[in-house]
Design goal:
Mean pLDDT is 93; it is low at 144-151. The two termini are 13 Å apart. The chain is built from nine helices and ten strands. The chain has 275 residues and is of the alpha/beta class. The longest helix is centred in the C-terminal third of the chain and has 23 residues, at 249-271. The chain is 40% helix and 15% strand. It has a single domain, classed as Metal-dependent hydrolases (TIM Barrel, Alpha-Beta Barrel). It has an eight-stranded parallel β-sheet with strand order 1-2-3-4-5-8-9-10, sandwiched between helices. Helix 3 (83-95) runs parallel beside helix 4. The chain is globular and about 45 Å long.
Amino acid sequence: MIWDLHCHITSGFPGRTPEERMAQLIRFADRMGIERVCVYMGMKTIVDPNPKELRQQNDEVLQALSHWHDRAFGFVYLNPNYPEASLKELERCVRDGPMVGVKLWVACRCNDPKLDPIIDRATELQAVIFQHTWFKTAPVAQGNDNWTRLGAGNAPGESSPQDVVELMKRHPKASIICGHTGGNWELGVRVVRDLPNVAVDLAGSDPTRGITELAVRELGPERVIYGSDIPGRSFASQLAKVHGADIAEAAKKLIFKENLKRWLTPILKDKGMKP
C-alpha cells in the first residue's frame, strides 16, 4: 500500500467545493492504489497569504477532510511573515484540530528567524514539518497568485535545501522533510546528506531516471519519502520514480509507506488516531 505525502485540492481538480475536489482526489488515488494522502493548502494558490486568507485556506482543507478521515491527513498551511497568526492556526488546526503536520511554502525563506517559534511549537506538538525547497536556475519573480518569469533564481521567499541546513543548525532537535528533493535533486540530496533529521520527498519534479537511486544511495532508504504534488503532477508520473527505480523491494516499501508512517506515528498516537 502507498501513502502520498504531497497532495493539494487546487484548480487541477473539478469541483466547486473542497468536498467535491477531495472526492475526485480520492477517486484518482483509488485508481492508482494509494491508501492515504496528505493534503494542504486550499482551493486557490496564494503565495503570501494574510491571516484571513491563511485561515480560509486551512478551513477549506478541514472541509475536504471532513468525510475522509480514514483516507487523508491534513497539514496546516502557515506563513512566517505573520508569526502570531501562524501560531494561532497551529494551535487551532493541530493542537485542537485533526491536522498532523505543518506546510511551509514560499512566502518566507526558512533560514529566516521568523520561523523559529513555529518550528519550536510544531516540534513540541510532534507535528510533521514539510518545507518546500528548490534550486531554481530559471528566472522567476513572485506575485500573489502566480509567478512571472523575470530575473534569475528562486522567488524572493522561496527556500533552498541550503536554507534548511541553516534552519536545522538553530533547531537540531527538529525533524523536517525537504520538499521536492530541492528540485535540482542531484544537488539537493547532497546538501542535506549530513543532517540525519532531514528527509526528502520525491514529489513534483520530472520523473527523471536516477533520482530515487541517488537519494537512497546518499541518504539511505529510511530518509526518502514518496509524494506526487498532485494535481500539479500526475500520480502515475511520480509513482514511476519509485516503481521503476533500481533499488531493493524493501526500500520501495519504506519509500512508499513505512517512512511516512513512522514520521506520523508519534502525533497520531498522541491524538488517539489510527496509523
